[in-house]
Amino acid sequence: MKTEDMLPACELLNSIGYWSLECWGGATFDSCMRFLDEDPWERLRILRKALPDTKLQMLLRGQNILGYRNYSDDVVDSFCKKSIENGIDVVRIFDALNDTRNIQQAVKSVKEYGGICEPAMSYTTSPIHNEQYFVDLALKFEDMGADVICIKDMANLLLPMAAHSLVTKLKERVKVPIHLHTHNTTGTGDMVYLMAALAGVDIVDTALSPLGNGTSQPATEPLVATLRGHERDTGLDLEKLSEVAKHFRGIADRLTAEGIIDPKVLQVDTNTLIYQVPGGMLSNLISQLKEAKQEEKYYDVLREIPKVREEFGYPPLVTPTSQIVGTQAVMNVLSGERYKMVSKESKGLMRGEYGQLPGPVDADVQKTVIGDDTVITCRPADLIPPEIDKLRSEISDLARSEEDVLSYALFPQVAKSFFERRLAKEQGLAEDSDELIAVLTAAINAYRSGNSHPLIRSVGTAAGAPASNPTVRNS
Known about the structure:
The chain has helices at 3-16, 28-36, 40-50, 73-85, 104-112, 131-144, 160-173, 189-199, 220-226, 238-257, 272-275, 279-291, 298-311, 321-334, 344-351, 363-370, 388-394, 402-410, 412-426, 433-448, 454-462, 470-474; strands spanning 21-25, 56-60, 90-94, 116-122, 149-152, 178-181, 203-204. The protein is α/β, with parallel strands linked by helices. Strand 5 (149-152), helix 7 and strand 6 (178-181) form a beta-alpha-beta unit. Helix 6 runs parallel beside helix 7.
């Protein structure tokens, strides 16, 4: 969804009375640059101006920030600072493994720069993860300085009765507000929220009906209507919600027609309760299998995921562990032999590079995956030297701000390409990114086939050297 798709709805959204609007972080940052050719920082500033009376919320992956590896503490600190400066109020911070060491720097920084700090428990079920596990984790978060605590149920595994019980226990033991996030993948999300509301949960995440349900959040309007007149009445205006939903219905119809919203991931699938696959992970699996022209192996991969997860010590399936376990399951199925191919990320997870795995790993699988490599037992970020100065130096010719440096830190190739397109547009080298890509592709193809091209010749002339000069041609 482009920023221009959001702006017409902002005035109405701002007047509804939401506790917060989640509009940034997570996968949106990468998507802005990679797919929409938008600057995510500029998007945030625009939304901040358009939503002056509503708290803006983001999702932060702890020491991973918004990427897929651990970053140094100085990068985490700078990112938290700039996010809050540019308009974020609430920072939801989670670690895929629930390793509190991996969120401590982000918690410290968010508190220091005046943000609302919301550590999140990655909810899952396993022989390791029971109700007491999550109560104990919430108490640790409170001791760390949490302003709000989130139950992050990314795969809709928290069932209604369990939600009532967990929220009841948390409200008895924890003093800060409890914020519940689930999806409607298994079709139980609405009931989960109702039972949690009756147990005293403070805040829940919903999505307007045109973009709700399935692997998205339960829809906003039905929950508001259900609680109307009850002691847990949300106070939100159904007429305003209905009006703003009209706008997003048009956006949803267009995204569906363009194939961006896949109806398959909006259907109820109770298999999630067996395979524990969150919505974003389902979308990735479908894409990977389509690319390999092996879509018929979909359910084979789903059956493989719980096996890999158990062998890896029961990590919750949320970014980045969901992608790591999911990709490894795809490799195991498509190669025809389990662990014949092993991803770099699978090796890192087994080595402890992402933090402490919740349960014991399968010794044989670990041997296959990492051989005799030493397993990290300290906080992984303690092994990462400061990075921000090095990153600033690497991208100094294209970066115009500290925000640009941070974009490059998280997604080096994507950000660099985005900065180059931005510069090219400003210099009039292309009217838009599609034209620029077409021009560069033609030049590259000409170069590969040994032919001349106007772009290559002009570079040669500008450099004061013939186009046949190897250095100039390579440039």
